[in-house]
Design brief:
Elements: H1 3-7, H2 12-19, H3 24-31, H4 35-42, H5 50-60, H6 64-67, H7 79-99, H8 104-134, H9 139-153, H10 157-166
Length: about 170
């Protein structure tokens, strides 16, 4: 799996196949489904039937809700979904290592990666919130965001903090 392949992943299911370096036909043999059925699910041409969804979730070791939306179609692969998948996989690896009695020094890099990913998730959620606010199209909101960003970019954190406490800012 190369970076170019990862970039073109469009759904969570497709991404799981690639990061686990699996093939549609191999999964099909294991789960008794045709490669065409699997491809249809990945390309969102068909919803995933409940009994197949259960088998897929068990196969990949994830909850069904990780794989599909409310209409049983595979979820799109967003940056946030990718981060959450990696956190889940790290948690599974840590649990496996702990169960095997691995040394703490072997587990610690995974824990550090998880902390980094949690920070990325927080940042991604914050970006989504800002994007949602910007989509409202309110000029006052735009002015406030621009003001705050300007203060942050110029390193005037103390000034910004003081202005926010005093209720100062753009009018």
């Amino acid at each position: 799996m190369n970076k170019q392949e990862l970039k073109h992943s469009r759904t969570v299911l497709e991404y799981l196949v690639m990061i686990n370096e699996l093939s549609y036909s191999g999964i099909g043999r294991e789960l008794n489904i045709t490669p065409q059925q699997f491809s249809d699910w990945i390309k969102k041409r068909r919803p995933i039937p409940q009994e197949r969804l259960q088998a897929l979730a068990q196969y990949f070791g994830v909850e069904e809700t990780v794989l599909v939306d409310n209409h049983q179609y595979t979820k799109p692969l967003t940056t946030l979904a990718k981060i959450e998948l990696h956190i889940l996989l790290i948690e599974q690896k840590v649990a496996q290592l702990e169960a095997e009695g691995a040394d703490e020094e072997d587990i610690e890099p995974y824990r550090q990666s998880k902390v980094k990913l949690q920070r990325e998730r927080t940042d991604e959620l914050r970006l989504a919130r800002v994007a949602a606010v910007l989509q409202q199209g309110d000029e006052r909101t735009d002015a406030i965001i621009d003001f705050v960003l300007n203060e942050l970019e110029t390193g005037r954190l103390e000034d910004l903090s003081r202005k926010l406490q005093k209720g100062e800012g753009p009018k």
